[in-house]
Amino acid sequence: MTEIYPDDGRLVNATPAPTRISGLPDDDHATFLQLWQKWQQHSNKNKLLSVYYDGHRAFQDLGISIPPQMTRTKAALGWPQKVVTTLARRHVFEGYSLNGAPDAFEANEILSANNYDLDLAQAITSAYKHSFSLLTVTQGDETIGEPPVVVQARDAEWSAALWDTRRRIIEAAITIDKTDKYGQPTGAIMHTHTAIWRIDARENGGGWKAEKLGDTPNRIFVEALCYDPQLNRPLGHSRITREVRYLTDAAVRTMVRAETSAEFFSSPQRYVLGAERADFAGQDRWSAIMARVQVLEPNENGDIPSVGQFSQMTMSPHLEMYRQLAQNLCAATNLPQSAIGVFAENPASAEAMQAAEAALADEAEYQWRIFTAPLRRTLQNIIMVRDKLDEPPAESWKTSVKWTPARYSSPSSAADFAVKMVSAFPSLQESQTLMRRAGLTEDDLADINAENRKKNAVSLLDRALAATNNEGHVDESGENTENGDVNNSDENGGADNSTNNAGSSNVGGNLGVNNPSNTRNRVKRNIKLPGGTKTPINR
To answer: What is the per-residue pLDDT across 455-467, written as a single tens digit (0 to 9) for each?
Structure first.
């Protein structure tokens, strides 16, 4: 049966909702039915979006200019995928911070155990494809090798959520994680403000059953990442809009028409005047065209047949239309034309590339602000599940999310920017924020800080060794000095003036005695041992 994915939300091959679930309270069962209906309502649209994203959209023939044999062409175009991934790749998560301190809540270990960077990138891609995705947080089973807290990204194609308009958070959510061999759902997890439920279909068609996985402290441990949410659509929109789908279909038709023209271009049509059909008997069309020598006899009237060729078709109109469709797509999605393979005759400069990507960078930065709140609450959910808290720590509301800068900046322009900022504001010389603004990532900054610590440690060690060597140095007069200071007695062997004030503060100041800040400036006297060796003695 041919699959049909209407754009108006109509149900096609809808999966019936479980009418009875044993072990599930009536209120929660009503919520489950609402979520199931919501999932069915958007299921066909989400499947259609996935078809476009994967490049599996069938060729939509208008039945006018394309020969019947060309309608079976398996044409494909990856524009919808470029529309999604080009923006999604601008979001590179670099961690959480609190007042500039990374990992203030010691959650990096849990994030690493859950491959949080990868799951978050996939969740963002799914949000751009289907309008939203979910991040769920649950207690892990460490006996089977799970981390203490499990963080999972959920695709909207197999999820649904109810939105609380007043609190601007998810009210309830369902994620389908089991299907049979026919693709029909057989298991799901439902999240509410009071509990987490495991709902599965019994074997052999024996209905459905529910099992409570745990209670929640009046907080749902599910957050939604949405693309371009609006007041009337709080769960956002898909980047693969109706306009993108139309332009993709039109471009595929243009490609097929161009391929058809290329066939005629490669094998131009010819004509013969004054010949009989019998002259070509026993030859197929290809042999008649490609034969090197054609022998044509005069016709019954004695006229010699004339052979001609129709004007060759050109592909220029198709290529120009394809370029125009590509420009329309870029205008609708803020993509640079180079992202979909449309390049200028001359290579673009760094400034031109930055200008072409300015609109896309603006959209990425706008999405950062949208993603910040749900990602901050996701961190709170992790802390609450790990520490078994009824509410998040008060300081967690100040947590910020760090991203790699979205705007392209050439190394030369970034360096020039940093130099000018330091010249205008010298206090920014060692600013981490300035380095990030110049294009350095968190990993780059960590490597730089580690190298600086290593250099400082080596410098301190060198100074310590130099000081030790100076303490044991003997000058030509037989006196041991440090830092070039000579505070010994005069050449006549008499004591200096400071010795007349022994025990006074002046003595301590001159000799480094009873002065903690100058304890290293001690004067030492060399004496001769019986063997002639000199050794210093502290004075």
So the answer is: 777 777 777 778 7
Q: Where are the alpha helices (DSSP H) in 227-357?
A: 242-266, 285-290, 316-333, 350-356
CA distance 194 to 228: 29
pLDDT computed for residue 356 by the predictor: 76
DSSP 419-472: HHHHHH-GGGTT-HHHHHHTT--HHHHHHHHHHHHHHHHHHHHHHHHHHHHHHT
* Stretch 291-311: mean pLDDT: 63
Instruction: State the chain's mean pLDDT as an integer.
Output: 78
Task: Find out whether 385 and 149 touch, Cβ atoms under 8 Å.
Answer: yes
**CB 35, CB 160: distance < 8 Å:** yes
How large is the average pLDDT for residues 108-112? 94
pLDDT band at 345 (very low <50, low <70, confident <90, very high): low
Averaged pLDDT for residues 312-320: 78
What is the CB neighbour count within 10 angstroms for residue 462?
Answer: 10
pLDDT value of position 203: 80
Q: Cβ distance 72 to 66 under 8 Å?
A: no
Cα–Cα distance between 247 and 253 in angstroms, integer?
Answer: 10
The length of the chain in residues reads 539
Q: Using CA atoms, how far apart are residues 151 and 450, in angstroms rounded to an integer?
A: 31
- Greatest alpha-carbon pair distance for the chain in Å reads 147
Q: Reduce the DSSP state of residue 67 to 3 states and report it.
A: coil
3-state secondary structure 89-118: CCCCEEEEEECCEECCCCCHHHHHHCCHHH
The token pair at 238 is 């898909």
Strand 208-215 and strand 21-22: the pairing is: parallel
Note whether 306 and 315 are within 8 A (CB). Answer: no
Phi, psi of 126 (to 5 degrees): -65, -35
Position with higher pLDDT, 356 vs 513: 356
Q: How many angstroms separate the CA atoms of 52 and 381, rounded?
A: 34
Q: 244 to each of 19, 74, 80, 251, 375, how far by Cα in Å?
A: 39, 20, 7, 10, 29
Measured CA to CA in angstroms, residue 43 lies from 18, 178, 179, 222, 249 at distances of 17, 16, 15, 20, 22
Can you read off the two tokens belonging to residue 470? 């100076």
What is the phi/psi pair of residue 152, to 5°?
Answer: -130, 145
pTM comes to 0.72
* Contacting residues for 319 by C-beta, under 8 A, at least 6 apart: 258
Which residue in the block uniquely carries the two structure tokens 């060597």?
469
Nearest-CA neighbor of 55 among 16, 34, 84?
84
Distance CA 280, CA 294 (A): 9
Residue 50 to residue 239: CA distance in whole angstroms: 12
**Tokens read off for 315:** 């592909």
Phi-psi map region of 13: left, alpha, beta (phi>0 left; psi -120 to 50 alpha): left
239 pLDDT higher than 80: yes
Residue 71 confidence (pLDDT): 65
Counts for the chain of helices (H) and strands (E), in that order = 13, 16
Which of 3-7, 52-56, 317-321, 367-371 is least confident? 3-7
Helix (H, G, I), strand (E, B) or coil at 380: helix
pLDDT above 60 (res 198): yes
